[in-house]
Design brief:
Layout (H helix, E strand, L loop, with lengths): L1 H30 L5 E14 L8 H7 L2 E11 L4 E15 H5 L7 H6 L2 E16 L13 E13 L3 E3 L12 E3 L20 E14 L4 E12 L19 H7 L18 H9 L2 H13 L12 E13 L10
């Protein structure tokens, strides 16, 4: 009986020692694992529009002609040394102008110059993206890489509302006004035989790349460039054909067809945009004269970039604050 008691006690002791050593080993293994951490960010940068008023086929020119601004905030969770998920909100303004884009090359871009559309649009974008770091972080946020190039991609929800200025009249007593274009249904949307009005909420696909620099234990600096391809052709309010002349009246008709306007709408100096067309017509050959006449009165095409939807590119200079994973309390004395 005593032998059984001694044997049982010995077995329990061995089991206890084994359990204790297993717990210690597990604890050591946990301590060697990556510890996820979070950060918040703030960024500012430029915005660049691509669409019917600044075509993809002239990507470089579209990038530098009419840049605008963006500001954004974000929250990032670093799950592994290389992979993170990020949620961001960005407010960006984009703009386009047929006159500004084509005034130095009227002959080659005659249809677009004659069309004379312009717009601005404030975009509110909420995006969820995955981020892949090419250089892995260390075990903790304090041990993250000093310099990290990365790529990102995901999905975004976008709210927008394009606007344009009312026509310029040097004899008018009232100043020009920015007018929202979607409620005017400038391509006849909503009427029998026309498409339904386009939505002011759409999706986009953000993809891009960036570089991140560890400033100290609590802060990163970053720069990134990201392109957004949207699911709408109406960030610029132009995507189809002109509506019939009797389909629109009043302000809607004025904002829909701006081919006959004498003055450019957006520049502060309001140059005479019609005179270069008159000069070109008077000095041109019959084929060129016919083209100008057709664009001014006979063309039915209002959108100009084929089947591609509109897009925009954002650059962003960012500062990231690393959220401490543990709150360190002072020792009790």
């Amino acid at each position: 009986m005593k032998k059984i008691k001694y044997l049982t006690a010995g077995m329990l002791s061995v089991a206890a020692l084994f359990a204790d050593s297993t717990d210690s080993l597990a604890q050591r293994r946990v301590n060697t694992h990556f510890l996820p951490y979070s950060s918040v960010s703030f960024g500012v940068g430029s915005s660049h529009y691509y669409g019917d008023l600044a075509g993809y086929r002239q990507f470089i020119k579209a990038t530098y002609i009419m840049p605008r601004w963006n500001v954004g905030i974000g929250y990032t969770r670093q799950f592994t040394p290389k992979f993170a998920a990020r949620a961001t909100f960005t407010w960006a303004r984009i703009a386009g102008d047929d006159y500004t884009f084509n005034k130095n090359n009227i002959v080659e871009n005659l249809p677009q110059y004659v069309r004379n559309l312009h717009f601005r649009n404030d975009l509110k974008e909420f995006a969820i993206t995955g981020v892949y770091n090419f250089i892995p972080d260390g075990r903790t946020s304090e041990e993250r890489a000093k310099f990290t190039p990365y790529i990102f991609g995901g999905i975004a929800l976008l709210a927008h509302s394009p606007e344009a200025r009312t026509p310029y009249d040097p004899n008018a007593t009232e100043a020009q006004q920015w007018v929202k274009l979607q409620p005017l249904h400038t391509e006849g949307q909503g009427q029998p035989g026309y498409d339904k009005p386009y939505s002011l909420v759409t999706a986009a696909i953000p993809v891009g790349l960036g570089v991140r620099y560890k400033l100290n234990e609590n802060f990163n600096l970053a720069f990134e460039v990201g392109f957004r391809y949207t699911f709408t052709d109406y960030l610029d309010d132009a995507g189809g054909n002109y509506a019939a002349k009797d389909a629109l009246t009043g302000l809607a008709a004025q904002m829909a067809d701006r081919r006959q306007e004498v003055y450019a709408a957006r520049p502060k100096s309001h140059p005479n945009r019609y005179q270069p067309l008159v000069d070109l017509y008077q000095n041109g050959d019959p084929s060129q004269q016919a083209q100008i006449s057709n664009e001014l009165q006979g063309s039915v095409v209002r959108g100009a970039d084929g089947k591609l939807n509109d897009g925009y590119l954002l650059t962003s200079f960012q500062i990231h604050y690393i959220i401490p994973s543990k709150i360190k309390c002072p020792p009790i004395r």
